[in-house]
Amino acid sequence: MTVNADISRTRLPIMRVQNVTKTFSTISAGRRTHLTAVDQLDFTIAAGETIALVGESGSGKSTAAKCVADLLAPTEGTISMDGAPTIRPGRRARRRDHRRVQLVFQDPNGSLDPRQTVRQVLEEPLRNFFGNNRGELRRRVRELLADVELDESLLNRRPRELSGGQKQRLGLARALAVEPEIIVLDEPTASLDVSTRGQMLALLERVQRHTDVAYLLVSHDLAVVQSLADRVLVMYLGSIIESGPTDRVFTNPQHPYTKALIEAAPKMEYRALRSAWRLDGEIPSPTDRPSGCLLTNRCPVVQPDCHAQRPPLVAVDADHLSACIHPELLSAPSMDARTAS
Amino acid sequence: MSNIFLQTENPDDPGKAGLTIEQREVEGLSQGTIVRRRFLRHKGAMISIAILVLMVILVYSSIGIDIFGAHVPGWWQWGYLDQNAIVNHGNPTWVLPFNFGSHPFGQDEIGRDIFARVMRGAQQSIVVTLLFGGISAVIGVVIGALAGFYRGWVDQWLMRLTDLFIIFPILIIGAVLGRALGGLGAAALGAGLGLLGWTALARLVRGEFLSLREREFVDAARVAGASTGRIIFKHILPNAIGVVIVSTTLLMSGAILTEAALSFLGFGIVLPDVSLGQLINEYQGAFQTRPWLFWWPGLFIIIIALGINFIGDGLRDAFDPRQRRIPGGVGPYRQMGRVIAGWVRPRPTGAEPRSTTDTDVL
User: Fold this and answer.
1) How far apart are CA A113 and CA B321, in angstroms?
2) With contacts defined as CB-CB under 8 Å, which chain B residues touch A114?
3) Which residue in A296, A336, A317, A250 sits closest to A52, CA to CA?
4) How far is CA A121 from each of CA A93, A113, A173, rounded to the nearest angstrom?
5) pLDDT of B36-61, one tens digit each?
């Protein structure tokens, strides 16, 4: 295998997510309804790369991340590692498969046991997977603290005695403890303030360079995505509607939703750039998804044929896919398109 | 102790600078140390423990104890079944403060010494309480934990079982058993009550588990490779321990009252043996003429029940990780304790940390 580190995209995938669908059945007003949180998710992750799942609240990105991290069993589809399926419909992975995929939680307060000290938090995965050799445990805990740049004086602290940034780094150290191949980062910076956010991002990059771990980044913060991700998957209402290399998706979005998402992000020249290209209304309920294109009720340039059927993901150019049948309307963004239709 | 409070910020350790006094105070201590330290500073609980310990020593040393048929004698001159010559018309001979006389608590109409009888009754109550608390805590925690953690059909079945036990009226079952067996010994009574009395605890533990199992640290433990048993007993149960301890202590003080009620009705501990409730029953006819026959067993029931409640209160405060401040002298139980003890605590002069997040500060 001749892998050139520069062109990570040509690396072999270590995880393949195939047709993963997650539905929940809920009973509302006495009737059983099905909620499709994730629909036919399909992507691969290669060693050492960072893939971002972006989308607004309710787009299913967190559910997708939980399926990948094996906290939820998918309703359909498989997730395989190195070609061997580890997660099948309705089945969770075996415990030892957790060694390969780890998760950093969004909320460091909730995801750390309030009764455990820093040392206990870090020893937990080590004991569970590598046994109880005391000297070895001590050495590894020290290493992990150094990896995430936490001071050893914190070893006997409990979570409430740590700052937000320290807690989040502890969460990362816990994930790194078992030397995973993939780490799912669920909004890793959402709970941090701006100054610690930068440190966290730099730390994530450094860790990736040293360990060649792959990240699946779940975020709605496009600045974070832009600085970390190699590839972006844009989700809307449970489906991927655009995917591609980060720079190309950000500079040349091919789906009205992506374009609106990017333009909605606050910028320095906020007023000047605030264009007419924005989505009105709320994301529809996942129990009642539009039959055609998912965006039909909010799209500023919706056309009659958009309602006909769900548009497939098609290649715009090499590995840049989009699920919009009228990308030509994106280049002439104005309210005219909407009033004309 | 003072070095904890006077500790200044260490410029070499920037991590420490952001800590509040409360955080610094508990920094670097093991969970057990923190709990023990907080508990030891809880005045209501400490006073209750002191009183209960003194009472237990008094109760067991005074009239001695029967162990497997062998009698270990105590220092008190009368046995609880002896009939003696009536002194002072059966009135208590205790003249405050230290002149006890021969029958300090008085005598009943056939000359038995009330002090010895109350001691014997308190012994029985202690046995009932401990057995009841232990048995019902174990059953309640296991059933509640399994139901709350596994949910689904396990929860359904276990909760229906709990409902079944809830509809058993303890008093009537105890009465029927007592009748059938011709009265129950203290051990049998405690065990029997324990087998029936775990229901409230099971429901509370179930609720606590239902809420805790959704917390992210449970997911985190699973991702970190923890087994289900480890998640239940190492992650969820320690976070639910406050509920277990508080409701167990409440159940235990309830058990004293249940024992008293059963014995009062004549179905628990029966003649010739003695329990606190049975004493009250036996002497109910003397309410107008010899009220001291009532006072003493009643007083001991109150001391035991109240003392256990105070201890539970202190344990709950000690176990609560959200409780940052070391408990001081406020709060409903403690205020009550102060009133009872007739003792007013002086305001701390800066030595005691006060948390701004506290809600129970006056």
Assistant:
1) 11
2) 217, 239, 321
3) A250
4) 23, 8, 9
5) 788 888 888 899 999 999 999 988 88
ipTM: 0.81
Closest CA to B219 of A322, A186, A243: A186
What domains appear along chain B, each with residue ranges and CATH number?
A: 39-84+107-326 (1.10.3720.10)
Give the rounded distance of the alpha carbon of B21 from its chain centre. Answer: 32
- Which residues on A lie below 8 Å from B239 (Cβ)? 113-115
Rounded Cα gap, residues B27 and B48, in angstroms? 29
Q: How far apart are CA B143 and CA B161, in angstroms?
A: 10
Q: Which among A259, A276, A262 has a CA at the least distance from the CA of A336? A: A276
Q: How many CA atoms lie within 13 A of A205 on its CB side?
A: 13
Residue A75 has a CB neighbour count (10 Å cut-off) of: 18
CA dist B88 to B279, B288, B293, Å?
21, 18, 15
Enclosing H/E stretch for B139: helix B114-150
Q: Is the pLDDT of residue A212 over 80?
A: yes
Q: Is residue A182 within 8 Å of residue A45, measured between CB atoms?
A: yes
Q: What residues of B are in contact with residue A125 (Cβ under 8 Å)?
A: 224-225
Which chain B residues in 119-148 lie under 8 Å from chain A, judged by CB atoms? none
Peptide bond into B353 cis (omega under 30): no
- Partnered with residue A183 across adjacent β-strands are A102, A215
Which residues of A make CB contacts under 8 Å with B?
A: 69-71, 95-96, 98-99, 102-103, 105, 107, 110-115, 117, 124-125, 128-129, 151, 153-154, 156-158, 160-161, 163, 166, 171, 174-175, 177-178
Q: How far is CA A133 from the centre of its chain?
A: 35
CB A226 within 8 A of CB A250: yes
CB A64 within 8 A of CB A235: yes
DSSP states of B69-86 as a string? TEEE--S-SS-SS-----
What is the CB-side half-sphere exposure of residue A55 using CA atoms within 13 A? 28
pLDDT tens-digit map of B285-341: 777 777 778 888 888 888 888 888 888 888 877 777 665 554 444 555 555 666 666
Name chain B contacts of A174, Cβ cutoff 8 Å: 220, 224
pTM of the model: 0.74
3-state secondary structure B192-214: HHHHHCCHHHHHHHHHHHHHHCC
Q: Which amino acid is at A229?
A: A
What's the mean pLDDT when you consider all of chain A?
83
Could you give the angle at the alpha carbon of A54 between the alpha carbons of A50 and A59, nearest 5°? Answer: 140
* Interface residue B223 vs chain A (CB under 8 A): yes
Q: Which residue of A has its CA nearest to B21?
A: A161
* Cβ neighbours for A126, distance < 8 A, ≥ 6 positions apart: A137, A140, A141, A177, A178
Q: CA-CA distance, A298 to B118, in Å (whole number)? A: 81
- Tell me if the bond preceding A253 is cis, omega within 30° of 0: no
Dump pLDDT digits (tens) for B124-156.
888 888 898 899 999 999 999 999 999 889 999
What is d(CA B264, CA B262) in angstroms, rounded to the nearest whole number?
A: 5
